[in-house]
């Protein structure tokens, strides 16, 4: 199976949000340096710049986890963050099941349910490995998983 991005929705929406908040922080810095708002106290732009950069970092961190790469190789299901970290692998033989969860806005996700304690929480490092449910992903999974795929309904 080729490397596939876990969520294309996250890959499209989150970089736009990171860019918006980064631009807002730059605009706040420029406004404070030029002191466009004469009534605002000096340094308020630096404060807003810090807040916008912190929010941009949170979106960047979320992007790294939500739009991660997932692939099957040598009997292992592997996951790696989009930019760094968030690595996990599990053997196909050790999987308890493969299940489909539905998210409210993003649609159906195929999750490789292993013995991890954290259920369908895609932000945690030890959560299930999940990919978007597409025909290509389903055929790739069915080629290595010969048991039925469960439908678990709504996820978190």
Polypeptide structure, described:
The protein contains 3 helices and 8 strands, in the order βααββββββαβ. The longest helix is centred in the N-terminal third of the chain and has 27 residues. It is elongated and about 70 Å long. The two termini are 27 Å apart. The mean pLDDT is 83.
Short description:
It is built from three helices and eight strands. It is α+β, with helices and mostly antiparallel strands and 156 residues long.
Shape annotation: elongated
Reading side by side through the largest sheet, how are the strands ordered? 1-2-3-4
Question: What gap, in angstroms, lies between the N and C termini?
Answer: 27 Å
**Radius of gyration from the CA trace?**
20 Å
Q: Name the beta content range.
A: 25-35%
Uncertain regions spanning at least 5 consecutive residues: none
- Indicate the percent of residues in helices: 25-40%
Order of helices and strands: EHHEEEEEEHE
Q: Number of DSSP strands? A: 8
Assign the structural class, choosing from mainly alpha, mainly beta, alpha/beta, alpha+beta, or little secondary structure: alpha+beta
- Overall mean pLDDT score? 83
